[in-house]
Every structure is written in C-alpha cells, then in structure tokens.
Amino acid sequence: MMRNVITPDVLVTMIPQEFEDWRDSGEDLRRELTHAVMRDLECPAHWDMNGEYRSEFGGFFPVQIRFTPSHGNFSLVVCSPGDISPSWMVVFIPASGHPFSVIRTLPAWSPEVISHTLSLVARLDADGYSQAIIISVLAMEGAL
To answer: InterPro entries from the xrefs (predicted)?
Structure first.
C-alpha cells in the first residue's frame, strides 16, 4: 500500500474537498491527517492538545484540534477547511460551549500564525485577562 505523506507543503496546497476526501477515507487516514496538522503546531505549556478522530467534537470539520488550558475554562479549536468553511479557522469556545467566537480565519495553512495565536491567548490567560478581553485583544490585533 502506498503511503501518502502529509507535509506542511502538502497542507498548504490542499483544497477543502481534499480534506473531506481524507476524512471520508476512514479513521486511519483521518488520524494521519490530524497528526500532520498537530505536528506543525506549538501547544502552549500546560495546555492539552486533542484531535478529533471520529465525531467527539461534533464531527463538523475534517480536522478539528482542541487546545485547552489546565483550568479548562475555554478551548481554542483549530478547524480545517472542508464543507463548512473554505478557510482554516481558530475558534474560541468557553467551557459552556457558547457563545463561541471565530478569532482567526486563514485562507491557507499557516502554522506560524496559528501557533502565535495560541501563544498570545495563553499569555493573556496566564496574566489573568477575562475571556472577553482576550477576544477583544485578538480583534485589535487584526485577527478577526
């Protein structure tokens, strides 16, 4: 069996339908795709990083990775392009689940930008800023 290797260069060129095709090809290929994305991202210290392999988080996106600080008051969710969105998205989700906020959309895979967003949120959270302030700082940064 030929193995597809998903490198950052491949992720940049993939179109939304290709992400859906990988998801539709079964759990093993979806896991491989998710792990390729996870490899490129820097998880903040003392945060958990969890990928979706079946439909643990609702199954809306071919790749969905949750980053959650140890206190668990919110998660940042990295979502791949697919049927729902043509762009990569980073979504801020409070522990209650709502209201959620799309804090960044990216037309192409950009792990540096996503890792910067994760790091910025981790710093603001560690400094004691509220969820509302964190979201507004991201908006001022031009993330929205």
So the answer is: Plasmid_inh_PsiB, PsiB-like_sf
